[in-house]
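Fold it.
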Amino acid sequence: MAGAFQLLNSAMKDLAIARFTIPTKIQEEVIPLVLKGKNVLAIAGTGMGKTESCMLPLFNMLAEKKHEPIALLYITPLKALNRDMLDRLVWWCNKLDLDIGVRHGDTSQRERKLQIEHPPTIMITTPEQLQPMLTGKRMRDILKNVKYIVIDEVHELVDSKRGVQLVLALERLKLLCGEPQMVALSATIGLPEKAAEFLFANKKYEIVSTANETRLDIKVESPFPKPEDTALAEKMNLSDSVAARLRKIHDLMLSHKAILVFTNTREAAEMLSSRLRVMDSELKHEVHHSSLGKDVRLKAEKDFKDSALKSLIATSSLQLGIDIGTIDLVIQYMSPREVTQLLQRVGRAGHGIGKVSKGIVIATEADDIFEATVIARKALARELEKPRFHDNAMDVLAHQIVGMAMEEYDVDTKKVYDTLRKAYPYRDLTEKEFRNILEFLGMLRIIFLGAGIRRGRKAFEYYFSNLSVIPDSISYKIIDLASNTMVGSLDETFVSEHSETGSSFIVKGRAWRVVSVEKDKVYVEQISGLESSVPAWEGELIPVPFEVSQEVGALRRQIYQYLKQGKKKSEITEKIQEKYPISEQTANKMIWIIERQSEKFPVPDNKSITMEHSGEYTVLHCCFGSLVNETLARYVSAILTAEQGRVISSKSDPYRIIFGNVQPVDVIRILKEARPEHIKTVLSLSLPRSSLYKHRFIQIAKRFGAIMRGAKYDKINIDNIIKIYGNSPIARETLRELYTDKLDVEEAEKIIKAINDKEMKMQTFEGLSLLGELGLQQELHDIAKPDRPEAEILKIIKKRLLNTKVRLVCLNCGKYSVVFKADDVAKDPRCPQCTSKLLACVHPHMTEAQSIIKKRLKGSSLTAEEAEKLRRIKMSADVMVAYGKRGAIAIAGRGVGPQTALRILSKVFAFKEEDRLYKEILEAERQFIKNHRFWSD
């Protein structure tokens, strides 16, 4: 009955049976292998007991014979998982009299010292914290005792540089402790064999997978608006369809006990939460993402686990196995973009053996509906993406070389090469490549080369400032001057390159001119015309795989075929639902999209390239996925730029490429004339001029130690740095990383070959189809819409100013001081205490205004600062006496003082135009934003 538990010693067996009764399938298969000393990759869904599948036999071995600490190293990719795993394992350790500790970035110096003086038998840590542990003399003596290594959440590591860093560090660790037994744990992962090779290198291993045992219930929904959604839409200034999706999420929250809602970005999580709060102020929920403070996240996790919250709205911060209690539904808002993402997220629901993991994807429109539908089907069929591994990452290698030079003075060069080459990502590392890195580090004076490798004075600072391979990046908020609201964010690299005062860029579908850059804010105003504007790089969404985009194209084609055959919509809906887990409303939306698309244009599918041209835009429909389309876009742009002598920009998404001011005939000619072998050559020449390249170049230069880790982009001359290091390992690693993370040359070459062989149909049409227009709206965020009209801008300014709070203070009696919205100020205001019109209008937080006035009325002497404030208070009272409510509106403007308000109002009064008032206030704000930082105090 107890199955594999019978293999444990009596004490462990009794504990296991008391805790679980019987082993789960993954435990049944893994426990015997671990007891035999095998290296194992265990793959199972969340809540299936995979942690205990390795830890029970390891506890068994730790308890049976005396092990010197640290005997077991447990490595997880997140600090939050460290804490969670400590809570989970401490129960067993208390029963077995085993010491356990945790070491991560937040561990205090006192705790670290105690861990060295009294090391635990089991240490939980992160890949980053393993780096300093390997260099400390006393800690290295302790690490010699490691007999077992557990690596958790492997799927989060194998396709990233963090994973590369970890396997290199493990090879360094093995120099101390020999060959420890390794067990790796993973949820859903593509190419398990490749993942196992990555972790275990040339060592023997076993793979055990029970991932398909998890029972899944996944459905895609895209609700139609109901009558009540119209009222909600008007209240929240949203479209009916967005209101319908909000209502659906709200209803699901009310009808379930505990729900996790996942979004793809932090901004989406915050926006969803704020709108739900407006919709229902009583709905108990919180936001959870990595930008929030640790205490805020921990409180949200605890409140959710204690049922004080109905829901958490999160990004990937809760995607891993942090214990937050029982969840009965996972909602994914918009397509998750990858099958593995959806499986990991839905796996958080129905946590436990025999339970069903239930997930609902709330899809939006057009591409999102089709994409979510395909991903849902692939998730149910367990068709996972193949990870893209980082082979020969030179910046990570450089850091590990310096680490070994810190461990041992004048370390033997061959020893370093042989050790690091044992790691799977460096199996093909040549001595020439290795020597190039050594010489470059020597040039940077981080190491010295002689008979061996000797650390330089810069080695310590370089090594410890680069413990993490996750790039540091500052985000700037974009503030619309008209509404004084945030319209998006910009990466610091973009700001440093394109955000001088007067320059323009495109974000959220509109062109904006930079008014001023202040600290972490970029103040902008909207302009008309897009030709000279630079499309802003707005962060990194997960790329949609080639296979998903291809199936989206095939699904479009299938629906079109059904329509051509004259099938009824009900029949088509039935056919779609036979294959795909979607609601009837979702199917109806898909049919409607293809019906509308096919009225005047062909339906873009997986076997053709369709080009549409309208005005300044050429839209290339191609269902090749994010990386392939980005590769083709950059290739075509590079050729056109060289031919026409002007920069030809492009924007791509998984289903199309958009060019500005380009003729379709030129795009077709370039694609037809292209040869597969030309793609990488052209990209290698053109990429170094791109913002994308420059951004990565600086990140990698920091990881090499050529630039200080904390250096601000606005203090770096990027072009000069690239010129200096343009032929160095930094440049080569930048291209290698881009070819791995952002581009897919190999698949793009196959597309070009298919075009050459006339296997890929190509056609051109004038005008924009439904999918063409929707593509512009989705990818360029409404860029196809007309510029915001002046009337709309003035409406926004008016609304903002009227809702701005001001303080009215009576200069006559000094007894009245009240805060109002500017809109609530009377047309001809008077003091309710003394009926005087002598009211000053000041900033709402200027509470000292009343006390200054009272001092003046009593005849008390004022300080120089108070006298100056009183002068301005009197001047604002003059404005209010002359202009009443209009004076309050003018003074409500940012940086608009009483003197400027008088100038504005005297000008406006002569014209007697209300709109003119708001135009003049906006102009005054613009001048204040541009110039106030240069004013002396």
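The first helix runs from residue 10 to 20.
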